[in-house]
Amino acid sequence: MFLxxxxxxxxxxxxxxxxxSFLSIFFAIGCLIAGLAxxxxxxxxxxxVIMCIVSGIGIIFGRSVLQRYFEVNKEIKxxxxxxxxGKTGVxxxxxxxxxxxxxxxxxxxxxxxxxNSIEIPKNANVVVEKIDGVKLIVKIA
Length: 141
Prior knowledge:
3 helices; five-stranded mixed β-barrel; CATH 2.40.50.140; alpha+beta; 141 residues; rod-shaped; NfeD-like C-terminal domain-containing protein; transmembrane helix; transmembrane; Membrane_assoc_protease
């Protein structure tokens, strides 16, 4: 009986390693405890009850602690370039309808065009509407 519980526990640990859900690990721990209990309690039913109780306690009390500690299921933050949308910058080279200008944003200079192909003079404040490749699409703030 002990060997069966250990095999089930190992399979559950492998599942946990693949999913990182902090769920299978508590069932694996429950299987280990049930395996140890199999030396004392020969009844399969009692071993299953022990496994369920240990797993349930682990899930109720331990899962949230592990998720906080390992920062799992946190809010996904936008990547660096996506985070620029909505930010305000300053035109450092005129933006014309014929050619892109330059905008300084967060200390970096970006190539930029205007939303409606309107001209935007140097030193004007602009807001990033969207990003096309490495070029900002801006409008006057």
